[in-house]
Structure formats: structure tokens, C-alpha cells
Amino acid sequence: MIIKELIAKQKHVYDLLEDKQSKDIFMGLFNYMITSEYSYIEDFVRKYVVGYNEMVATIKQKLKELESKKVVVYGVGFSGVNIYSALRDSLHCFCDTYSKKEVIAMPFGDIPVIKPDKLIANKNEYVVLVGTLFYYDEVCDYLRSNQVDMVDINAPELFDNLAELNSQYFDKELIQYADGEVFIDAGCNDFRTSELFLRKCGTVKKILAFEPDAEMYQVCVENSKHIKFATIHPMGLWCENTSLSFSRIGMDGYGSRINSSAIKDDNDTFTVEVCKLDDILAGSEATFIKMDIEGSELNALKGAKETINEFRPKLAISIYHKSDDIFEIPLYIHSIRADYKFYIRHYSGGRTETVLYAI
User: Fold this and answer.
1) How confident is the model at residue 253, as a pLDDT?
2) Residue 182, Cβ neighbours under 10 Å: how many?
3) 246 conformational bin, left if phi > 0, alpha if psi -120 to 50, beta if neither
4) What is the enclosing helix (H) or strand (E) of 354?
5) DSSP 132-160
6) What distances in angstroms separate CA 287 from CA 109, 140, 358, one per listed residue?
7) What is the CATH number of the domain that holds 116?
8) In a 3-state reduction of DSSP, which class is residue 339?
9) At which of 107, 127, 160 does a domain end?
10) Which pTM was predicted?
């Protein structure tokens, strides 16, 4: 994207946003995108994410009580970055199978990244803070089997799921419910979000949930069997009806995604069915669409264009999976209907869990 076009999109989206909080988060994401300077993320997290500062202070105090040992964070992914940004003064090093050169884009400053064999060989010197969300249980089992001391804190869970997590997709300052809601849950995983919607909403006419992972689909079916008006579709949402490559990530499927390029990766990869929401609804109404589908949101919105144009449902769309989603998603929705009002809210202690509301 050339500079002139980028600036034009930045100004357009900024002008569409309704309040200061939305504008501050958007500009933080924009500045991070063009500079890779993580302090822009830290600034709006400290300002707007409820409970973040208190949580960091509590963890630092607990780590301070372990002064006799060096604190190691196991994992250099997104959760590791979140932990580093908050606790850098308390950390000795990272541990991962990746080398320092392979994670050069991550903002770890001068903190080294050691290999697991070095950690095990010198385990009496270290205490480990597990810093991976998707592989938390696996890493804990590995460390226990090698008799490595661990800090009794599930840091990824704390950083990625802070206070007010129950507001994600359903921000109480923004969302108002109507009688007879028709809720679309794209990327329902274990049906937890739909269950949360049921607790918040008054009367619900219908829930249509979409989960392409066959294993998690069965979990959704089991968890929704008591809800007669819920239908679970064993497919993902997309801009056309087709089959695509899909990678399953983590033991619980969080982070699993469609690979539209059909490129294989190191994860469990298989083929799934995807569809247009417009075709599933076939002209019937939707009142609320939630999408958190690991980078497929824009394509799924394209497959819901007729529904959005006709019924103007409330939209809660994740915009953190791809860097240009902060531009392309609001601008695409605005191109369908110019009467939406746009807000951005953030629900984690790092760069994940940012939601665009169009209401």
C-alpha cells in the first residue's frame, strides 16, 4: 500500500469513528503497524483496558518474591510479547525452540532467547513463567517432566483475557438488544460466545453458529443441545461457497484458521467447507453478527453483503488478525451502508482482541 493511499485510508477511518477512545486505539494500531514500535500498543492498553495496571503490579510483586531465581518466559509468540511489554524489568530471558534471529521482529530488546536444552541443563538457576496461550498445557507438562520450577501464574490467560472479557463483542456502553434477536456467531469454537449472548439478551429468536473445525463442531453441538433455536453449521463463513485449507492450532482450537492460499504449515491442516452467509440466510433476517475468524473476517463480510445492506444488523468484528483490517473492514462496511456508526474497543493486555462495532 503506497504512502498516499495509506494516509487517505487512515484519515477516512479516523473520521468515521465516533469517540475519542475509538480514535486513540485506532491511531495506536496504525502507528504500531507502520513503526513496529510496541509502545503504541502499551499506551492505549494502559489507558483503556480495565484491570491491566493492577494485574501487572500483582504479577511483578509475585516475581519480586522469587529474587533468588532468574525469571524465564517460555514462548516468544504474541503472549510472550504481551508479557515482555509489561514485565521486561523482571525478566532474565526467554526460552523457545526459535532462535533470537528467528524472532528478530519481536520487541524483546536485549533479552536473550535460550533453547529448551539450556533451560533444562541449568534448571536450578531458573523459574519459568509459561508464556504461550495455545500450548500452555503442553509446555507445563514438558517442564514438570523435567522438574523445572514454574511460576504459579497462567500469564497468557491473564494478559489475553483481562477484566471485562465478558463485554467483548457485547460492550454494554454500545450494544442495545431488541426483542427477537437473530444472532450470527462466526467462529463459535465451543459455543461460549453464544451462551454469553443468551445471558445478556432478552428474547432470542434464533442463533446460527458456524464452526468449520470438526472436533470443535461436535463440542458446539453438545453445548447447544438444550437450545432448540440454535443451529450449528459445520463450516466457515467466506465470500463464496467452496472448500479451503484449514489449520488447527492449539489443543482447544483457539487460533485455528482458514488458509485461503492453501499453503501447508506445521499445524494440523485439512480441508473444510466454507459458505456465504447470504446464501445460508436466503433473504431472512439477521440482527447481530459477531465475527472472530482469524483473518477471514473481510471475506466473510463480503459473503454477507446482501444481509448487511437489507437488515443493517449490529456488527462486532475482530480487526486484529491482519494489519490492514483496521482500514479495510470499516471501509468495506461503510461502502455497503453509510449510516453505520463505528466504535473500536480493546479487550486484552497486548495487541490481540480488538473489536470494531458497527451499530
Assistant:
1) 46
2) 20
3) beta
4) strand 354-358
5) -STTHHHHHHHHHHTT--B-S--HHHHHH
6) 46, 42, 12
7) 3.40.50.20
8) coil
9) 160
10) 0.84
Cell numbers of 116, please?
529448551
- Do 20 and 114 fall into the same domain? no
Q: Which residues contact 168 (CB under 8 A, 6 or more apart)?
A: 345, 347, 353, 355
When pLDDT is averaged across residues 342-348 and rounded to a whole number, the result is 94
Residues 268, 204: contact at Cβ < 8 Å?
A: no
Average of pLDDT values for 216-238?
A: 95
Parallel/antiparallel/unpaired status of strands 236-237 and 268-275:
parallel
In whole angstroms, give the CA distance from residue 120 to residue 279: 54
Beta strands 314-318 and 288-291 are: parallel
Residue 351 DSSP symbol: S
Check whether 148 has a pLDDT greater than 60: yes
Task: Note whether 26 and 174 are same-domain residues.
Answer: no
Least confident stretch, 146-160, 226-240, 321-335: 146-160
Q: At what angle do helices 39-48 and 20-35 cross, to 10 degrees?
A: 160
The pLDDT of 118-128, averaged and rounded, is 94
Mean pLDDT of 141-150: 95
**Burial (Cβ within 10 Å: 0-12, 13-18, ≥19) of residue 61:** exposed
Cell of 26: 485506532
155 shares its domain with 227? no
| Average pLDDT score over residue span 123-144 | 91
